[in-house]
Structures are given as structure tokens and as C-alpha cells.
Design brief:
The chain is an alpha+beta fold. The chain has helices at 22-37, 83-95, 114-117, 121-125, 148-156, 172-186, 190-199, 252-264, 270-277, 337-354, 371-381, 395-398, and strands spanning 4-8, 42-49, 52-63, 68-69, 76-77, 208-209, 223-226, 229-232, 248-250, 295-299, 302-311, 314-321, 326-332, 334-335, 421-430, 433-442, 445-453, 459-464. Strands 1, 2, 3, 4, 10, 11, 12 and 13 form an eight-stranded antiparallel sheet that branches. The longest helix is centred in the C-terminal third of the chain and has 18 residues, at 337-354.
């Protein structure tokens, strides 16, 4: 069931077919075995390196009851990996002179609540606007319709997380507001704008904004893990499934060609790509390690970007290393913890196969020049039921302690840290801070956490990769 389906080699536009490196085929076989272990039904995977598409493949099945193989053309839901495309549409308006990044969003999007209307557009793009995230809250269920005014009224009833530019907290709400801005400025729907200004210029053959209730040829079926068995995920509301905070469908072919567009253009423009991938600096003078639709990082001295996405029944992870022209996207049609781990590990494994040293997987342990700081950080992450203390964190986090912005909070591994190893593998300086990357391992499974410290040793950012 989970054999290779539609294994396809694609050339870049108007290029000859590219031979697949043996290391990539070995890694792809490792990915296939890991996929079986994680009970993932189907996946769409693209690998781009050095300006060439090395692979665009389907693995497993797109439909369990009908045993339809996943192909290179099978459509998966990108979830929040779509945010980069919404951001690109907004930045296109900036380049056209229709809006400015420093404009308050309410200058262009009509009838916004006062608390939202004054937030600058650039802060919405970078999740530094303080707009509360709607996801997971009562009244915002994925399978129920909610119109624009009802959405705005319900979201605005929540307190702002912080003033624009004070901190960072992931906000799907902010990207919904950007979607309203796009519609009001252009008079076009998000679906039409994405097709006309991104998909067609970038030569994406099947990419589209989702409509969960529509009959869409080639769309994978969504699943979730429940009580140890794979079941159909709840069908999203047709409108919600295509919202601008994460509503785009792509195939492996599409994600590969979109990466080529990011690398060479002309759509999106070079200035747009630079804004998408440049970290925002907030009032403290420190980076939030997020641009516009991409998390940003530095691995072995080179800039990288990544993002995950999740909607009912689908998970996606994308990783790119511009220095080597390497990018991998892994999309799966199962929502579960093991599926999430699988797609991240598969993404980094494939990137490492074609560009050794481009991911944290290649990092080796280094001497720890601040073991007390490492021990204190490990203790904070293993705090269990102990409440967070504002004293341990710089203002970017301390002002959020006790609030409802969990995306900005350090992880909590629980009080049982038996069998966990916590190893320093990298460090680098950035404006007004230092970043230390740790490898957390237990039971043969590893994950990397980058922790950013202010000069006084307090933590101002935590990211996992």
C-alpha cells in the first residue's frame, strides 16, 4: 500500500531531465520505511537543488478505501505553509504603490474593529502585531461557516496579546485580516488573486485555493489517528478551507515549481522574496526569527527558512537553504503526532542527502562554554507543573507569561526528564543576543531547539526544528 506511487522526475522549466543522485534515492527509501512506521497513508514530496527539480513524487495512497496511489500530481493541503503566498500577494501591492508596509491595515481593509485597524501591515505579516489567534477557540470550528463580520466581532472580543512591535506570537487572525485587505484593495477574491498573480505566472499546473465541499480531481482524502486507528478527518467548511491564513492546495510538482519561482522569479520579485525571508526586528532591537510566511534561522553560518502547516487531515513541512538552492517539501494526508514527526524528519533527511551540512542533522556536539546556562534552560523546559516566572525571560516573552499566546512560550517537556539528553551543537551571535542550538534526544529520536539569550542571560526566543 505504501510503495512508491507516481515516482516522477521533473526538469526545471524547459530543461533536460535531471539524474537523481544515489544519496537521494537511498534517503527516499529511508523516508518510505519511516512513512510505513508512522502509519501515514500518503505523501507528496518535492526536492529541489541547485536550481533543478530532482524529485516530485507521490508515496503511498491518496485514498485508503479506493487504494488510489498518491502521484506527483496529487493535491495536498499546505495549511500555514500557504502564508508565504498570501504575504507575496500583499507585497505585490506594496511594490505597485497601492499600499505601504507601515500603513495601518484599517486604512485599506474596511470595517475592522478599532483594536485591529491600527496594526501596521508589516506587523501582521511577521506575527508581531499582537492580534489574538482565533485557532482552537470556541466559535471558530473548522467545519462550521463564519462570515466576515461574525469573525471580526468574535476575534475582537479577545484582548490584544501586546502592542504592535513589542513581541512575537503566531496569529492566524492576522493573515485573515491581510486577506480582507487584499479583497478590499483589489476588488478580487483571494482565489482569483492567487490564480492570476501567483499560480499562472509561476507555472503551477494544479495549485488552487481549496474548497472542501467541491469535487476537486486529484485531491487526497484527509485522515486522522483516533484511538489507534486511521479515520476520516472532519470535512472543513468550504469557505474556511480556503482562508488566506492557510487555504492552498498544491501537488509535489507545484511545490517544486514554486520553489524555482522563489529562486529565479520573475514572480515573485526578488524584493518580495527578500522580505519574505528576512527576519523582523522589533522594539528591543532583536530578531523574532520570522519574516513573512517563513521562519528564519541560521545553520552552520548559512541562512535557512522553514514552515509547517496543519488543517484537519493534512500536515505539511517545508525547508529551504537558499545558499545551496536546496528546498524540500513534505505533505501528508494524516493528522497525528507520529505523522508530524515523520514529515519533519523526512524533510531534513532529504535536504541533507542532496546538500550535506545544510540542516541541523549534520551538526556535531561542541564544547559547552556556559554549562550553567544550559542546565538552567533544561530545567525551565522540564518545569512540569511549575508555573513560568517572568524573571527568567526577556520582555519579548515575559510580557506574555500568563496570557493566551502559547506559540511564544518555551516548551514544557514535563517533569520526567529520564532518558533525555540535551546537547549543545551550535551557537552564533545576532544583534543584541546569542543563539544556542541544542539537540534533544530520547529513545533514538532527536529534535533541535534554538534558544536566544539576551546579554543578561534571559531567554527572548525559542524555536524548534
Amino acid at each position: 500500500m505504501l510503495g512508491l506511487g507516481g515516482a516522477t522526475l521533473l526538469a526545471g522549466r524547459a530543461r533536460a531531465q535531471v539524474a537523481v543522485p544515489p544519496a537521494l534515492e537511498i534517503a527516499m527509501e529511508q523516508v518510505r520505511r519511516a512513512m510505513i512506521s508512522a502509519d501515514v497513508p500518503g505523501a507528496g514530496i518535492s526536492v529541489v537543488h541547485g536550481g533543478e527539480i530532482l524529485a516530485a513524487r507521490g508515496l503511498g495512497v491518496a485514498s485508503l478505501p479506493f487504494q488510489v496511489p498518491a502521484q506527483s500530481t496529487t493535491l495536498f493541503h499546505l495549511g500555514s505553509v500557504s502564508k508565504q503566498l498570501t504575504a507575496a500577494l500583499v507585497l505585490e501591492l506594496v511594490e505597485a504603490g497601492a499600499i505601504s508596509l507601515d500603513d495601518p491595515v484599517g486604512r485599506h481593509a474596511r470595517d475592522l474593529p478599532a483594536s485591529f485597524a491600527t496594526v501596521p501591515i508589516r506587523n501582521l505579516l511577521s506575527h508581531t502585531g499582537g492580534v489574538p489567534d482565533y485557532e482552537g477557540l470556541p466559535g471558530f470550528e473548522a467545519d462550521r461557516p463564519i462570515g466576515r463580520q461574525a469573525f471580526l466581532s468574535a476575534a475582537a472580543a479577545l484582548p490584544m496579546d501586546f502592542a504592535p512591535g513589542e513581541a512575537w506570537a503566531y496569529s492566524n487572525t492576522g493573515y485573515v485580516l491581510l486577506g480582507y485587505l487584499l479583497a478590499d484593495v483589489t476588488g478580487r477574491t483571494y482565489k482569483a488573486l492567487a490564480a492570476e498573480r501567483l499560480f499562472r505566472p509561476a507555472d503551477l499546473p494544479s495549485a488552487r485555493v481549496d474548497d472542501a465541499g467541491a469535487v476537486i480531481p486529484g485531491r487526497a482524502e484527509p485522515y486522522l489517528m483516533s484511538d489507534g486507528s486511521v479515520r476520516h478527518a472532519v470535512r472543513m467548511d468550504s469557505d474556511y478551507s480556503g482562508w488566506p491564513d492557510g487555504g492552498i492546495l498544491m501537488s509535489a510538482q507545484d511545490t517544486a515549481r514554486w520553489e524555482l519561482a522563489l529562486q529565479t522569479g520573475p514572480t515573485p520579485s526578488r524584493s518580495t522574496v527578500a522580505t519574505l525571508t528576512s527576519p523582523m526586528i522589533i522594539q528591543t532591537g532583536r530578531s523574532v526569527a520570522y519574516g513573512a510566511g517563513w521562519f528564519t534561522d541560521v545553520v552552520a553560518g548559512k541562512a535557512v527558512q522553514y514552515h509547517s502547516g496543519s488543517v484537519p487531515g493534512f500536515l505539511t513541512f517545508a525547508y529551504r537553504s537558499p545558499d545551496t538552492g536546496t528546498a524540500v517539501t513534505v505533505m501528508v494526508n494524516l493528522e497525528s503526532g507520529p505523522a508530524g514527526r515523520f514529515m519533519r524528519e523526512a524533510c531534513l533527511t532529504l535536504a541533507e542527502a542532496v546538500a550535506p551540512g545544510s540542516t541541523p542533522l549534520a551538526l556535531s556536539p561542541i564544547p559547552d562554554d556556559a554549562p550553567d546556562l544550559t542546565a538552567r534552560t533544561f530545567a525551565l523546559f522540564g518545569r512540569g507543573d511549575t508555573p513560568l516566572s517572568e524573571d527568567d525571560y526577556a520582555p519579548e516573552i515575559s510580557r506574555l507569561v500568563g496570557g493566551r499566546a502559547p506559540s511564544a512560550m518555551p516548551p514544557n517537556f514535563g517533569a520526567d526528564l529520564a532518558g533525555l539528553s540535551w546537547t549543545l551543537v551550535e551557537r552564533h551571535d545576532e544583534p543584541n543576543g546569542q543563539v544556542r542550538r541544542y539537540r534533544l534526544s530520547r529513545g533514538g529520536v532527536s529534535r533541535h531547539y534554538s534558544v536566544a539569550y539576551a546579554p543578561d542571560g534571559r531567554i527572548y526566543r525559542v524555536r524548534s526544528l
